[in-house]
Amino acid sequence: MCGIVGYIGDKDAYPIIIKGLQRLEYRGYDSAGIALSQGSDITILKQKGKVSDLEEYAADKNRKGTIGIGHTRWATHGVPNQKNAHPHSSGDGKLAIIHNGIIENYDSIKRMLSEKGHEFTSDTDTEVLIHLIEEIKNHEQCKLFEAVRLSLNEVIGAYAIVVMEEGNKEEFIAARKGSPLVIGIGAEEYFIASDATPIIEYTRDVVYLEDGEVARVNRNEKLEIKTISNIRKNPYIHELEMSLDSIEKGGYPHFMLKEIFEQPSSVLDTLRGRINPETKEVKLGGLMDYEQKLTKANRIIIVACGTSWHAGLIGEYLFEDLARIPVEVEYASEFRYRNPIIKENDIVLAISQSGETADTLAALELAKEKGSTILGICNVVGSSIARLTDAGVYTHAGPEIGVASTKAFTTQVAVLTLMALKIARLKGTITTSNFRNMITELEMISDNVEKVLKSNKLIKEVAAEFKNVQNFLYLGRGYNFPVALEGALKLKEISYIHAEGYPAAEMKHGPIALIDEEMPIVVIATKMGNYEKVVSNIQEVKARGGRLIAIVTEGDITVKELADYVIEIPECSEQLTPLLTNIPLQLLSYYIAVMRGCNVDQPRNLAKSVTVE
Ligand code: F6R
Question: Do the Cβ atoms of 81 and 31 come closer than 8 Å?
Answer without folding.
Answer: yes
